[in-house]
Amino acid sequence: GPGPESVELGLPADARQGALAVAAGEALWRSAETGETITIDLD
User: Fold this and answer.
1) Distance (Å, whole) CA 23 – CA 12
2) Residue 11 included in any domain
3) Could you please report the per-residue DSSP string of 2-38?
4) pLDDT confidence of residue 1
5) Is residue 19 included in any domain, yes or no?
6) I need a labelling partner for 29 at 20 to 30 A (CA). Which of 8, 37, 39, 40 fits?
7) Is the pTM of this model over 0.85?
8) How far is residue 30's CA from residue 19's CA, in Å, rounded to a whole number?
């Protein structure tokens, strides 16, 4: 389950949600570095 810090902050996430957050963060970082436009489709 979520750790105490996640619960305290009201930000619990399952593994899929965590993976999506990491992937989105990586994509946004790459976009900022390269200037390329990205599209994130969560469907």
Assistant:
1) 17
2) yes
3) --HHHHHHT----HHHHHHHHHHHHHHHHHHHH----
4) 72
5) yes
6) 8
7) no
8) 17
Residue type, 41: D
User: Which residue range forms the structural domain that includes residue 28?
Assistant: 4-34
Within-domain flag for 14: yes
- pLDDT tens track for 1-43: 778 888 888 888 888 888 999 999 999 999 999 999 988 887 7
How many domains are there within the chain? 1
18-41: burial string, b at 16+ Cβ within 10 Å, e else:
eeeeeeeeeeeeeeeeeeeeeeee
pLDDT at 13 (0 to 100): 84
Give every CB contact of residue 36 below 8 A, 6+ residues apart in sequence.
Answer: 30
